Amino acid sequence: MLVEQIVTYAIVLVFCAAVVFIYLRKLKKASAVVEAKIEKAKQEGLYEPVSLHPVIDLGTCIQSGACVSACPEKDILGIVNGRAALINASNCVGHGACFHNCPVEAISLVIGTEKRGVDLPHVNQEFESNIPGIYIAGELGGMGLIKNSVEQGQAAVESIVRAGFGGDASVLDLVIVGAGPAGISASLTAKKHGLNFLTLDQDTLGGTVFSFPRSKIVMTAPMDLPLYGKVKLYDTSKTELLSLWQSVLANNNISIRENTKVESIGKAGAHFCVQTNRGDEFKAKKVLLAIGRRGTPRKLGIPGETLEKVAYRLLEPEHVQDKKVIVVGGGDSAIEAALSLASQNKVLLSYRSEAFSRIKPKNRDKLNDAIGRGKLEVKYKSNLVRIEAGKAVLALDNAGQVELENDLVYIFAGGELPTQFLEKAGVQITKRFGYTVKKHR
Ligand SMILES: Cc1cc2nc3c(=O)[nH]c(=O)nc-3n(C[C@H](O)[C@H](O)[C@H](O)COP(=O)(O)OP(=O)(O)OC[C@H]3O[C@@H](n4cnc5c(N)ncnc54)[C@H](O)[C@@H]3O)c2cc1C
Q1: Does residue 311 carry a pLDDT above 70?
Q2: Which of 53, 74, 92, 93 gets mutated to test ligand 1 (max ligand atoms within 8 A of its CB)?
Q3: Please, what is the end-to-end C-alpha distance for the chain in angstroms?
Q4: Is 223 in the pocket of ligand 1 (CB under 6 A)?
Q5: Which of the pair, 287 or 220, is modelled with greater confidence?
Q6: If you measure from the C-alpha of residue 209 to the centroid of ligand 1, how many angstroms do you get, rounded to a whole number?
Q7: How buried is residue 339: exposed, middle or buried, by Cβ count under 10 Å (0-12/13-18/19+)?
Q8: How many H helices and E strands in the chain?
Q9: Cα–Cα distance, 79 to 132 (Å, whole number)
Q10: 176 lines ligand 1 (CB under 6 A)
Q11: pTM of the predicted protein model
């Protein structure tokens, strides 16, 4: 009897030890995979966060993996030796899904790192900058995400209304610069309060999300849209969100002045003077900057760049068919655009340097594959020098200039950051190194 018991215990013990051993080996293997990804990210310059990113409190993390599965971008976070770790942190777009899903509140959202600072304008709790009358809302102030920007757009206009406007009815109460989530919500709030206001956008309604070739949009919590109510869209699409915004604005008779870039904001007596690239000049008592952080697409400054066939973003690649396309740029946006056009068009990717650095590994693989299959041609060390109807001229390193048949040009040459624009308006900016914007209490 005793022998039987000992044997049973021994079997159970061996079984348990085997289970633990298999589990630990599995963990070790999974950790090794993530560690290899981290190493690759370091080599490719994607490990260091660019702006908003999660910071994990390793003492609190319980390896639930909730943050990893919540992140829609994939491979931003992974688990190493039982704890969450950053992988391709520079690809983080600041959804904050990891922050909201962590069951033990081990994640904070931080802007910049000890080594890499991020420029943030000065704003007080009323969203007013150091220039009285100039307010800032949305991602420009440091807080990303659609929901946050919508909340801030509304809160900023409520502050503006509380501060009051004074006299002169011939002057606009408010000019809202930018019609992304913050500018839309600010416009609705301005309407709610019966303000005499104007909203301008250098591009079209919708903001940053709409300039990226990805249809899925994630919102981790419902948001309150002024004059509409609760928006309960969690996993939605750009089209759905855009049509919601369009209909709410239309129902409230708000029209956004699109394709109008604000070039400068100056003081004209007691008022602000807002000047646009179309030569308009608007006088306003208050200005709300809801211009986001992506800036203005950089122009090449070459002849023909104002032709209609030239664009700085690609929205619906599936609608571009059988065209001769030149895509300019060496970043992920250029490569993603070129790849999305390559199967149904003749695409040439022009890049001024001799190799692509700092691109997502997934894009590198897809690019090599497309080049290998003859779907896409890349001209390194090349510069577009002239664009004309039906053609374009490319200068090649050591090989002179070539004239190419061309229907469309997409330019992804980075952007002019809003910093310069803010400085011109007198708004103070500070570089923040590892500034925590969201922490669980
Ligand atoms: C690839 C990607 C995916 C994302 N996915 C999500 C997601 O799924 N869910 C989510 O919640 N967040 C997402 N985000 C973050 C989200 O897009 C931003 O946090 C949000 O759009 C910020 O809103 P905003 O109104 O402050 O600025 P923006 O959306 O950047 O809008 C600013 C607007 O100002 C205009 N503007 C700029 N300068 C001027 C000027 N001088 N004159 C006139 N107009 C000007 C621009 O044209 C733009 O329309 C994503 C971001 C990226 C990059």
Answers
A1: yes
A2: 93
A3: 58
A4: no
A5: 287
A6: 6
A7: buried
A8: 9, 27
A9: 47
A10: no
A11: 0.75
Say if residue 243's pLDDT is above 80. Answer: yes
- Determine contact, residues 146/220, Cβ cutoff 8 Å: no
- Tell me if 176 sits within 8 A of 200, measured CB to CB: yes
Residue of higher predicted confidence among 87 and 316? 87
Which is more confidently placed, 189 or 44?
189
Q: What is the mean pLDDT of the chain?
A: 89
Distance CA 411, CA 398 (A): 23
* Residue located nearest, by CA, to atom 29 of ligand 1: 207
- Rounded to the nearest angstrom, the distance between the alpha carbon of 149 and the centre of ligand 1 is 9
Nearest CA to ligand 1 atom 1: 212
pLDDT, tens only, 129-160:
999 999 999 989 887 788 889 999 999 999 99
Ligand 1 center to residue 119 CA distance, Å?
A: 17
In this prediction, residue 4 has a pLDDT band, given cuts at 50, 70 and 90, of confident
Which pLDDT value is given to residue 364? Answer: 92
Helix (H) or strand (E) holding 176: strand 172-177
Q: Where are the alpha helices (DSSP H) in 85-206?
A: 97-101, 146-163, 181-192
Provide the token pair at 267.
């003081």
- Does residue 179 have its Cβ closer than 6 Å to ligand 1? yes
C-alpha 315 – ligand 1 centre gap (Å): 15
Distance 245 CA to ligand 1 centre (A): 14
Ligand 1, atom nearest to 200 Cα? 43
At 328-358, the pLDDT tens digits run: 999 998 999 999 999 999 999 999 999 998 7
Q: What percent of the chain has a predicted confidence (pLDDT) above 70?
A: 97
In whole angstroms, give the CA distance from residue 125 to residue 121: 13
CA gap 69, 63 in Å, rounded? 12
Query: Of ligand 1's atoms, which has the minimum distance to the CA of residue 260?
Result: 43
Per-residue pLDDT at 297: 84
> Does the CB atom of residue 294 touch ligand 1 within 6 A?
yes
The reply to whether ligand 1 has any atom less than 6 angstroms from the CB of 181 is: yes
Mean pLDDT, residues 48-56:
86
Give residue 283 CA to ligand 1 midpoint distance, Å. 26
154-183 burial, b at 16+ Cβ within 10 Å, e below that, comes to bbbbbbbbeeebeeeeebbbbbbbbbbbbb
Pairing, β 197-200 against β 262-268:
unpaired
Question: Per-residue pLDDT for 9 more than 70?
Answer: yes
| Ligand 1 atom with minimal separation from the 276 CA | 42
